[in-house]
Amino acid sequence: MEWIGKDLEKLREKKPLVHNITNYVVMNTTANALLAIGASPVMAHAIEELEEMIALADALVINIGTLDEHKIYSMFKAVEIAKELKKPVILDPVGAGATKLRTKTSLKLLEVGDISVVRGNFGEIAALLGEHGKTRGVDSAVYDKEAAKDLAEKAAEEFNTVTAVTGAVDYVSNGKRTYAIENGTPMLGRVTGTGCMATAIIGAFLAVEEPLKASIAGLTTFEIAAEKAFEESPYPGSFHMKLYDWLYRIDGALIKERAKVREIEP
Amino acid sequence: MEWIGKDLEKLREKKPLVHNITNYVVMNTTANALLAIGASPVMAHAIEELEEMIALADALVINIGTLDEHKIYSMFKAVEIAKELKKPVILDPVGAGATKLRTKTSLKLLEVGDISVVRGNFGEIAALLGEHGKTRGVDSAVYDKEAAKDLAEKAAEEFNTVTAVTGAVDYVSNGKRTYAIENGTPMLGRVTGTGCMATAIIGAFLAVEEPLKASIAGLTTFEIAAEKAFEESPYPGSFHMKLYDWLYRIDGALIKERAKVREIEP
Amino acid sequence: MEWIGKDLEKLREKKPLVHNITNYVVMNTTANALLAIGASPVMAHAIEELEEMIALADALVINIGTLDEHKIYSMFKAVEIAKELKKPVILDPVGAGATKLRTKTSLKLLEVGDISVVRGNFGEIAALLGEHGKTRGVDSAVYDKEAAKDLAEKAAEEFNTVTAVTGAVDYVSNGKRTYAIENGTPMLGRVTGTGCMATAIIGAFLAVEEPLKASIAGLTTFEIAAEKAFEESPYPGSFHMKLYDWLYRIDGALIKERAKVREIEP
């Protein structure tokens, strides 16, 4: 997994501009995660400035955590522009399955946009595939290792996009090849927006790497940083702060030492 | 006060889904407080998804800290749905008294909704009772122990809802019985959204307890966590982080040791 | 520089109410910075309550970081009311130059409002003066010490307002006198909203001091707090928390010991 450290170096050298149309709960959180890792975040949703901002950006993050009419309109406009300008896009379908609005909006974005990666929890990705009742608010109500792998593969094929199903084990698939990542800590579930941070960090890697490897690199880097943070502070407030510290401190050596990434035999 | 620790255990077992329509300043803060204590927060205000989300939720938190036309509309729709579905609702009338819009919106929500608890500072609750000039921005301009007790009782009767007036001493009343809580630390006033966090945590307790006891349990738990955080870090940034740590760490034994709750003789 | 410590004492005694119409990313962050230093923040953008809120406020902070139609309308209404009520206003033209919407909105606010101070980075202030291509997202793409000084002076004359161009060295000018401040730490660039915090803190000083001195006092105080925070924690998450701690702890003695402020000979 030495390539992950090299991608991280490339990311830090490029300092990619990552444009986020994201939810109000995590705006500050994801901006800080992007700054800590070495990217440059920008948040903008006014229709009038989308084209200029996306033209400047190296990647686009769409996160549907707090929707409203105006934001939905901005998101569709943004993925359309990104498609034209050939900018990579990652979609976080927060809470898909909890409400029809969230499921429908995510599916429509996957349909009209040229989405490079979709990252969600088990319940969210299941909902996108029409398997309902597995989301509770914005959390996954269930998690099943074997089913998670299948979901990632099925969604990757169905939506013709790299899919990452994150949980105790993460599965990342492009429909042909599938990888499992076993880093991280359950404490991530006790801080709001950590899934959204993971998505944003994959977004930053999309500026320097193709989607499948960007997803693996982003999740592995983020989750190893979380492991180190948890070792220093086992409680959620202090852990949260240390997470930014470790997104800043993490390097290729640490990733090489800790990465638990393996390809799943088909 | 052993029942508070037991309610906290129930809360953590149930992991209630708490739906928040809240202000932009504290969204991240209250989500993290709810996660730390053991609840599952969700934020959603799009009209199209309110019914589904409230149906899933165990409690609804309405916080008027940053109003606009659309949000007000969502709030009214939400309390209406919650009434129909018999979900408990807590209202935080942030800044009532500072502007007519805030006072009017709060009063109207109390009128049309079936509000279980209203929690505010002295100036805010005074404003709801028509006693103006006691709010300055979102802070209480004055605080008077004896008057606070009277306010809590009067508001509880007037609005037919449990009322919590928080300050140096908190008074919680259902109009018949009134309790004083003397936990907490003035450092809470140096971190934004701590009142809103207290409200959200009462919201989580509403999923496992009736309104009067849920309010006492929520405030006592929150304020003891704040005492511990302050003992570890007497400065606002570090204190803020430790507050989440202690919302996670607090248990029945600590509550029993520290709780300063007493019933006021009528 | 003993006057800065005295202004800080005045600020803490007055506890000014600082009204912010600001971006979603930094609302929590700037509210906490204002509370830590000793001011009282309020965030409100509903047209219906602007007049009452600004009447209560001691200063108004306008930050264009996340624009939309409604917010722009609120901002224009707010600067108009502030002008009428003679309240000091500080403008943060976040991302000016990155998009036409941001440049145009900033210029129009400077034109119709009675703006006391504008604070931006090199690229943003350059864009306001028609020198484009120096902003990348919300970060300055270039920085040049000599040019920064000239920009501050030119903008101060052009817009007839105190201008602060912040960077490795900050330049503050009222068009006649120009000051350089060399405090701070590059780690400020690794936490989102630190520029916005600096703006908000100048806003608090505007409640007790004239614009040129308020800008110098605000930047110096903020950046010395950042130096102390960085000495305690050289990583972004922990640094961020310590920054609030030191905004709370900083006093006249520390400012006197550390301030690197000098007037530039014309």
Chart the SSEs and their pairings.
The structure is a homotrimer of 266-residue chains.
Chain A: H1 2-14, E1 17-21, H2 27-37, E2 40-43, H3 47-56, E3 59-63, H4 69-84, E4 89-92, H5 100-112, E5 117-121, H6 122-128, E6 135-136, E7 139-140, H7 145-159, E8 162-166, E9 170-173, E10 178-181, H8 194-205, H9 211-232, H10 236-249, H11 252-258, E11 261-263
Parallel strand pairs in A: 1-2, 1-3, 3-4, 4-5, 5-8
Antiparallel strand pairs in A: 6-7, 8-9, 9-10, 10-11
Task: Explain what you see.
- The structure is a homotrimer of 266-residue chains.
- With 266 residues, chain A is of the alpha/beta class.
- Chain A has a single domain (2-263), classed as UDP-N-acetylmuramoyl-L-alanine:D-glutamate ligase (3-Layer(aba) Sandwich).
- Chain A is 53% helix and 16% strand.
- The first copy, chain A, has 11 helices and 11 strands.
- A 9-stranded mixed beta sheet of chain A has the order 2-1-3-4-5-8-9-10-11, sandwiched between helices. A two-stranded antiparallel ribbon of chain A has the order 6-7.
- In chain A, α1 crosses α9, α3 packs parallel to α4 and α6 crosses α7.
- The mean pLDDT of chain A is 96.
- Chains in contact: A-B, A-C, B-C.
- The interface between A and B is medium-sized, with 33 and 33 residues.
- Chains A, B, C: It comes from Thermococcus litoralis (strain ATCC 51850 / DSM 5473 / JCM 8560 / NS-C).
- Chains A, B, C: It is an enzyme of class 2 (transferase).
- Chains A, B, C: Belongs to the Thz kinase family.
